[in-house]
């Protein structure tokens, strides 16, 4: 159960992303600054964290061993994840973006067989059958239904174009984040721990964030003091704390697709955390009845999903043996 609890703690810190991004949008801040500043501010924090543990050299060695793969999958896992999330936050409250983001549970389950090295030999259909547990698939569909109801309860407040654009962008993010995370776990082969892997991905995605900063400067000028402060909070709480915790949890169960899906499902609690914070901090209106039903399905589906992905022995004893998270280097 330890990876699941770590995943829930990561969801709490991840919720800060949706709230703070919404605050920055309401204050007139550029979504491009919100996206790029997070990772630019994460870099010195991660460098200090990893350096204190003597882990910088293994990170650089790992990147040098396969630079193009690290660049590609870091772009997919970080840039194609966070830039769309920030842009989508322009169109709706943080809890709505957080609810739609839970599509990553379903999409992560679907892309898992494609990322496995042996799927070409056995065929994609056979790979899906062998790696996707039926119980996890059914509970993912419950979560998906909940997301549809959450969106349906909000459609009266935004145009069809805004809804479509926001959802499509989040779908891109939902596929990119687990794909980048899982592929680089495979590429690094346990040689990097979670903070080191986050640092490596941040370093390799930095050129893209600098280009996005240039775009933000040209289109909206320099960031305000408020946006700088809120971006620093996002970098600390979501970029470092949440990402390291989530990567640690996924690395602990990296050899079990079922348990990996269960850890990823814990992120649905971001919806609850984001909704509570947004109502308290921003006095946001509560969801409509369909929205409440959708939220119940999302969270209930996550709980069922997490239980369904535990080994049978763990369900009886209430515990689960975790694997080594890999050497600290």
From TrEMBL:
It comes from the Bacteria. Pfam families: EmrE (PF13536). The keyword Nucleus does not apply. Keywords: Membrane, Transmembrane, Transmembrane helix. InterPro entries: EmrE (IPR032713). Signal peptide: none annotated. The chain crosses the membrane at residues 37-56, 68-90, 96-115, 135-152, 158-177, 198-217, 229-247, 268-286, 292-311. This is Multidrug resistance efflux transporter family protein. It comes from Paenibacillus medicaginis.
